[in-house]
User: Fold this.
Amino acid sequence: MFIGPVPHSRGLRIAVPLVAVEGVALVLYGVFILVQSLRLGITGPAEVSNLPAVVLEIVIFCGFGVALLFTARGLWNTHRVARAPAVLAQIIAVVVGGPLALSTELTSRVSGAIIVVVAVAAVIALLSPAVTEELG
Assistant:
């Protein structure tokens, strides 16, 4: 999947799959929104449930997902510049997942908790001294 040698540090071997899974999840969620919109139609409040809004939502989720996949590939190939967008994505994930984890709905709570745990694990791995040394 990724071109280049396997990273030496444990931190990158942990962070790369986490970032890649987040990217795939975002792309799949964008596709899910597309399929649901085609299958059920656009539903919800009129100010946010119109064709341009749904198209924008799909483009944003798929775009961020593809960007995270490129970031994961850059980390795999030990490109130093790939760490900053990966850490930024994890910060955004904690900001999104935190309120979800505190929700009253069970599905939202579980989703939020998973997002936060994965993001924190990825940040810890990305900011480890071994990764800093390997990325130079």
Notes: The chain has a mean pLDDT of 91. The radius of gyration is 17 Å.
